[in-house]
Amino acid sequence: MSTKKKPLTQEQLEDARRLKAIYEKKKNELGLSQESVADKMGMGQSGVGALFNGINALNAYNAALLTKILKVSVEEFSPSIAREIYEMYEAVSMQPSLRSEYEYPVFSHVQAGMFSPKLRTFTKGDAERWVSTNQKSQ
């Protein structure tokens, strides 16, 4: 049973064209060949050629690898993949485990004995600053 590949969209073809132009411009400066790019990406040279020539579509993972190799931002060759990566970053950065749930006051100088139960005279306004964390104090 043979399956035909889905044709690339015009946007994906434009991404490939921009990527190939960046590669052609930078390959001498960075001492790159399609073979060396392929080695760094963990794929064969034909796979890199397929990305550069618009045969295979770029994805976020390959785009991120290529930015490191070509020393450019994803946005320079694929604004849509750059948006996709940014949306993934936002989803990760919104995880509840990363949010601060507790705040603790910071005092840089306190007279000895001031934290005894009888002398608790500090108010929120006495703190120099507040430190946020997701760890509850013991």
TrEMBL record:
An example molecular function term from Gene Ontology annotations: DNA binding
Domain HTH cro/C1-type: 19-77
Coiled-coil intervals, chain numbering: none
Name by which UniProt lists this protein: Repressor protein CI
Gene: cI
